[in-house]
Design brief:
With 100 residues, the protein is α+β, with helices and mostly antiparallel strands. Helices cover 24% and strands 22% of the residues. The chain is elongated and about 90 Å long.
Amino acid sequence: MATKNIKEIADAKAGPSEPRAKLFMHGRSQAVRLPKAFRLPGKEVRVSKIGDKVILEPLQKEPFDAKRFWAEIDALGGRDFPEVRDDDLRPELDDDVSFD
């Protein structure tokens, strides 16, 4: 019975067709060099961990949609806003204030 070395065992466990990425150090941070097929758009990704799996998700900010924003404001219909009079906006002044 022939013994397998550690590399052969790791290769057999990962499977020959399973894509791999290289890990390397960049300063004091660990970095991952992804294969071309796994490239993500943008400059940042969301990182999460589930069990022993690290998940990278693209962070794409949608462009600001002013029409949608104002439609959402209009949909509120002013129902959550109290009635405000001009008198309510003026602060009450204390005539007895002394700066001695």
